[in-house]
Amino acid sequence: MFIGLESFLRGRKIIVILLAIAFIERVGWAWKRGMGSGAGEANNVALALSSGRGFADPYFVDSGPTAHLMPTTPLLAGGVHALLGTGSPAAEIVLQMLACLEMIAGYLLLFLLAGRLGVPWLSRLGALVLLCVCPLFMGQESLDFRYWEGGLAVVCAVLTLNMILTLDAATTAPSSQQQISFAALLAMSFFISPAFGAGLVLCAIVLALRRWSWAIRFRTGAIAGVILAILLVPWTIRNDRMLGKPIVLRSNAALEMAIANNDASLGADHKAAFNRSITAFHPAVGEAAAARLRQVGEIAYMAETSKQVSKWIAKNQAGFIRLAGRHVRQMVIAEPFQFEIGIGAFSGIRSVVYSVLAVLGIAGIALGVRSARHGYEYVGIVVATVILTYAPFQPMARYLYLIYGILTVAAFDAVGRSAVRVGIFRL
User: 3-state DSSP call for residue 65?
Assistant: First the structure.
């Protein structure tokens, strides 16, 4: 009986079953809750697109053209609404299915990445069980990622990491097809999520310096640059024409920095400080902020906010450093309020479970690098880059999700190896 159980646990059927459970859980929860979404600015932009108002109105109807977020998933969602009816249940159902497919693809790719990292099978399986069956990020996977880019960003980033580990382990130079595929993945990952993209670019540099000739480095880098330019140049031109400023990525960096760095943010009650700050600065939340944006437009409002937060940082350098340190800590050891935007149920439990996994995951990555296990240096670069990228901002659940899967895999690897070392079980 136990031989049969072990054979089942080591087979592919268990993986399919776990992914099916994950899909059914998310869809079932969304169906019970009601298929309508409330995914904030991305949702609003998608509805504006489907209604013929263009890439606009992230904060409220008629707030105008925007570069608040990248033109990725909102374009797809807007197209689905335009095809099936703006705000229709059919559109929400299709987007729900797509979000769940992104989630499944991300978890499957993480499972494959764990194999390339040398994580033992049972540890990989344990990580997959937790990711699939215990949904810490139900709201994001079921609702937010119909419109926001987080699910797609994880898929692209983990796919790119898988390819980096494959190329790093190869005994021959990459073929032309591999160079083009890798360059395209790098460019797409950066376009979808600059935080992920920056870490992956650093990994690509390490890989190139380790394994490739100058000719391959130049060729792959040039291809990636051309593909990224094809993605970014039209977006930048559109922003210059519609907003009067050639914004390359997003327009909201100053807004998010202002919410995270002000006198209220230095208070001991982090949840209350965040609520006061987002009400004071965010046009989708606070009436005064909305009124000012109506008066001057998005770009002028962001410029005013940038000046305000820059002055605050100049006068409160120690406070800014303290807040940045807190944000880094919150990317690893989270607080309940970070899970309350969107679906706030069980936020305390979810924050504790995430924090335990994240701490163990960081330890697992450190041990992997120290033990020279293949690939962990690349994982460490990506995780560190994402965490540091969000240091100036207040991290919320959508940001934590980016590194959640990777840290879970590393955590189970560390725990499994420790259990073997002390003789609890074998992997």
Answer: strand
pLDDT tens by residue, 3-59 = 454 454 566 889 999 999 999 999 998 888 776 666 689 999 999 999 999 999 999
395: its two tokens? 């991290």
Largest CA distance in the chain: 72
* Contact status, residue 268 vs residue 286, Cβ threshold 8 Å: no
Task: Say what angle helices 397-421 and 121-133 make with each other, to 10 degrees.
Answer: 150
Write down the residue that tokens 């309508």 correspond to: 36
Amino acid at position 253, single letter: A
Cα separation, 57 vs 45, whole angstroms: 6
pLDDT at position 1 is: 40
Report the SS3 class of residue 353. Answer: helix
Specify the DSSP class assigned to residue 144. G
Spatial neighbors of 258 by CB under 8 A, at least 6 apart, are: 277, 281, 305, 308, 309
Residue with tokens 């504006």: 48
Encoded tokens for 349: 């439990």
Residues in the chain with pLDDT values less than 50:
1-3, 5-6, 8
CA 187 to chain centre: 16
Structure token pair of residue 180: 């083009």
CB under 8 Å to 237, separation ≥6 — which residues? 246
Helices 376-389 and 150-169, axial angle in degrees (round to 10) = 150
Class of residue 353 by CB neighbours under 10 A (exposed 0-12, middle 13-18, buried 19+):
middle
Distance CA 49, CA 86 (A): 9
Give CA–CA dist 372/384, Å, rounded: 18
d(CA 273, CA 263): 9
**What is the radius of gyration, based on Cα positions, of the chain?**
22
Q: Alpha helix locations (H) across 150-213? A: 150-169, 176-192, 194-211
Q: Residue 179 to residues 163, 164, 209, 216: CA-CA distances in angstroms?
A: 10, 11, 15, 8
* Residue pointed to by tokens 């909201």: 252
Residue in the structure block whose two tokens are 């807007």 = 78
Closest CA relative to residue 292, chosen from 258, 267, 341? 258
